[in-house]
Design a protein that fits this description.
By secondary structure, the protein is an alpha/beta fold. It folds into 2 domains: about 200 residues, Rossmann fold (3-Layer(aba) Sandwich), CATH 3.40.50; about 100 residues, 3-Layer(aba) Sandwich (Rossmann fold), CATH 3.40.50. Helix content is about 40%, strand content about 20%. The strands form 4 sheets. The chain has a 5-stranded parallel β-sheet, sandwiched between helices. Strand 9, helix 10 and strand 10 form a beta-alpha-beta unit. The longest helix is centred in the N-terminal third of the chain and has 18 residues. The protein is elongated. It starts with 5 loop residues before the first strand and ends with a strand.
């Protein structure tokens, strides 16, 4: 990769800071739609603090953030807040965080929205989503599985409201041999499903039969084999050599636990999942020793968390790092074009390096160049 074609937002922040001290510029007014009330108000407050953190680093007094409450699942409040922002002659808005309101945003054709949603990476009429998309994650996992020379992949995800969405995204996978399995979100049902999927009962019977055959033999080879089999739970391979689990939180942990209880060995099977934002709670699950997943840059993520915590004496929500990058991105486009009039101003040919890592605008969509991380011995390692 030619580093000359990568724009570093952190470098730009310092560059523009030193180059605006002696000149009078027009004001850059940025709207911020966040849930400052309702169920997600803590997230809204964290998003605002993250935006303030970006302003602190930029140091340009010509940037003004205009926050408004989008509410929590409140379409009326969302529309009222957008109209309030527009009334202040603002053409660029960060938010909302949810993609299910995109139809509402389409009504405001003269405003560009930088959404933090990860659901639709396609650049729409007046919406750019910079969240870590499932497409970007699957692309990285696909390349990783091929690199590891795995031939049979099992893709698992829960039966829920997002199942249809996930299935649609999987249609673009280029893996030659993969199977899809949708599992129950009920842990009691899940265990039985995974045992059936992995042919656990038959493999367990195979072990008992083999041990029985060896019990009456006195030769040393049979004794050694029997001693070895006594340490196992099953014998025989499963019909896949890699898995992709599209899940997170307690549901992911239940799935991994079920695979372990079904004697699926991570020495034989490559275990991968989607972005977990370096969730350390998974350390305390007695499940998979080696788990891989694509993610944002770990060092930048840790650095951001450290500065945020030191500045505001609180822990940030993970996705607030996206609002930090959104401020840097908007500032760069504004300084480059002297104005922001539509999404076309953001169709930058160069790649952008922000806190989340490298992302680009290509073929009408936003894509992230994520890295693979390995979870082992209660630590994260870049693979």
């Amino acid at each position: 990769m030619n580093k000359n074609f990568i724009i570093f937002l952190s470098w730009l922040i310092l560059f523009f800071n030193t180059n605006t001290l002696g000149e009078e510029s027009e004001k850059l007014k940025i709207g911020l739609l966040a849930p400052f009330s309702g169920e997600y108000k803590n997230l809204g407050n964290s998003l605002l603090l993250s935006a303030q953190l970006a302003l602190n680093e930029i140091g340009d007094k010509n940037i003004i953030i205009v926050p408004r409450d989008s509410g929590s699942d409140d379409v009326k409040k969302l529309n009222e807040s957008i109209k309030e922002i527009i009334s202040e002659d603002i053409k660029i808005i960060i938010g909302p965080i949810q993609s299910n309101y995109f139809n509402e945003l389409g009504k405001f054709k003269n405003v560009t929205f930088i959404s933090l949603s990860n659901k639709y990476p396609e650049i729409q009429n007046n919406i750019i989503s910079i969240g870590i998309s499932l497409e970007s994650q699957l692309n990285v996992l696909e390349d990783f599985i091929k690199k590891e020379k795995k031939k049979k992949t099992l893709i698992l995800f829960p039966k829920n409201d997002y199942s249809e969405f996930v299935e649609e995204k999987l249609k673009n996978l280029k893996l030659k041999d993969y199977k899809i399995f949708k599992y129950s979100s009920d842990p009691k049902v899940l265990t039985g499903e995974i045992q059936k999927l992995t042919n656990y009962n038959q493999r367990k019977r195979n072990l008992e039969l083999r041990k029985k055959m060896l019990e009456d033999k006195d030769d040393e080879q049979s004794k050694r084999e029997l001693s070895y089999l006594e340490q196992l739970y099953t014998i025989g391979n499963v019909n896949f050599d890699s898995v992709i689990v599209i899940d997170f939180g307690s549901s992911l942990k239940s799935l991994l636990t079920s695979l372990v209880f079904s004697d699926v060995n991570d020495k034989d099977v490559l275990f991968t999942t989607i972005n977990q934002w370096f969730d350390e709670s998974i350390f305390y699950e007695n499940t998979i020793n080696n788990l891989y997943y694509p993610s944002v840059d770990l060092k930048e993520f840790q650095k951001y968390n450290k500065i945020y915590t030191k500045t505001f004496n609180s822990q940030p929500d993970e996705i607030t790092i996206l609002s930090y990058d959104a401020i840097g991105l908007i500032y760069y486009v504004w300084k480059k074009n002297k104005k922001i009039t539509s999404v076309n101003d953001f169709l930058i040919k160069d790649k952008i390096k922000g806190k989340i890592g490298i992302f680009s605008f290509k073929d009408g969509r936003v894509s992230q160049e994520l890295k693979i991380y390995r979870l082992k011995d209660k630590k994260f390692f870049k693979y």
